[in-house]
Design a protein that fits this description.
The protein is of the alpha+beta class. Helices cover about 60% and strands about 15% of the residues. Helix 10 packs antiparallel against helix 15 and helix 14 packs antiparallel against helix 15. The chain is elongated.
């Protein structure tokens, strides 16, 4: 099996979770057999979660091994320590440079080690000669038990603990809901592991962790942006009521962005057919996912859509303060008509500039720009149209009368 994705995203996933996947469920423990059983249970539980694709369990198989166990009493009788045996084995298996060979004008290291056949033969290892501190030479078999056994081909550790990872990607659903389903299905396994002696536990990692942190950070930044825009509007318009009227454009724009995302991210006909009609809204919403690029688009939209309200309300104030217009319906109609052309021209140029990005769904290199442009395009569309109706009505109802 192989995961299908982009090289850059694979690298980022690998840095964040240790595996090249969007979701990683890590099972930690001490006993290898129990660890394998628990990880297999996690794999089985994840396989039933809708939206999980490319599900894999970290490969670990039993392979033939030669295990050497030092008999400490026999080794001490010859004055040998386990480190002496380890040095000899390092030479036999990894090699050691014992001399230099001159070939024309270049030197090459002369490495001594066992050949492949000898390294896997317990009899050859047992007959290997080791020199004692007294100068006596004894065979390795006199101080070491050479065992022909089996063991795992790899032992992965994290935070000095053994771990096995089940990992997957997500398709057709958002990461958060898939992770929530995985947590629910693996909850019994976690409870069973907690009752075992030793530090057995499950950790969840992958791209969803970074996405959750980024969403929270962007939510905070978005809130600060709204507060900052409001304070600037109060300073500019000299009225907190006028500033609030400008901020009404933000929910109008958000409504257009959300509708645009729902239209673009339509659920499959199979998903709609499998659900009763009264669940279609939830199925439709579930098919729509928000990425970091979408949130950046929403934050960008705050400043863009506030511009139209500023242009209209500041012009109303200009008509009353500098041209002698009296507050009333006639003044608002005049101001709205005079600002209609500039607002529509600005919006039209913005739409034309965003159109290539909006039509570039699935094109390589537009993975970030496309969702951002989609949010801004839909938000500007509804904000521009509804602003011509809502802002004049609000100013007529709540505007400052002079």
């Amino acid at each position: 099996k192989a995961n299908i994705g982009q090289p850059i995203s694979h690298r980022l996933d690998h840095i964040m979770s240790g595996v090249r996947a969007q979701i990683a469920v890590k099972v930690f423990g001490t006993d290898l057999r129990e660890l394998r059983n628990a990880s297999q249970d996690v794999y089985t539980a994840m396989s039933d979660v809708p939206g999980v694709v490319d599900l894999q369990l970290e490969p670990q198989v039993e392979v033939s091994q030669v295990r050497l166990q030092v008999r400490r009493e026999d080794a001490a009788r010859y004055g040998l320590a386990p480190g002496d045996v380890a040095d000899l084995l390092e030479t036999a298996y990894k090699g050691r440079v014992v001399s230099q060979v001159l070939d024309e004008d270049r030197y090459f290291g002369l490495v001594v080690w066992y050949d492949e056949a000898s390294r896997s033969d317990p009899d050859v290892i047992a007959q290997t000669i080791i020199e004692t501190p007294s100068g006596r030479r004894v065979s390795l078999g006199e101080v070491v038990d050479v065992l022909d056994t089996t063991g795992p081909n790899t032992l992965n550790r994290e935070h000095v603990q053994r771990r096995i990872v089940a990992f997957c990607n997500v398709q057709g659903r958002d990461l958060a809901s898939v992770v929530a389903d995985i947590r629910t299905r693996t909850q019994p396994i976690e409870e069973r592991l907690r009752n075992l002696p030793g530090d057995y536990h499950i950790e969840y990692g992958g791209q969803f962790e970074a996405q959750r942190e980024a969403n929270l950070r962007l939510l905070i930044l978005g809130s600060l942006s709204v507060v900052g825009v409001f304070l600037l509007l109060v300073k500019c318009l000299q009225s907190w009521r006028a500033a609030l009227q400008v901020l009404v454009n933000i929910p109008l724009a958000a409504m257009g962005s959300i509708v645009t995302l729902l239209i673009v991210n339509q659920p499959s006909s199979e998903a709609l057919a499998a659900a009763p009609w009264y669940e279609w809204p939830s199925v439709w919403i579930g098919a729509t996912t928000l990425s970091v690029a979408h949130w950046v688009g929403f934050i960008t939209l705050i400043g863009i859509v506030s511009r139209n309200g500023i242009m209209m309300i500041s012009h109303y104030q200009h008509l009353m303060e500098h041209e002698g217009e009296q507050f009333g319906e006639a003044m608002i109609i005049r101001g709205s008509l005079e600002r209609l052309a500039p607002v529509m021209m600005t919006a039209t140029t913005s739409f034309i500039g965003l159109l290539p990005l909006v039509l570039g769904a699935g094109q390589t290199g537009k993975e970030i720009l496309y969702p951002l442009a989609l949010v801004v395009f839909g938000g500007m569309l509804t904000s521009t149209l509804l602003d011509q109706l809502v802002t004049p009505a609000l100013f007529f109802r709540f505007g400052h009368r002079k």
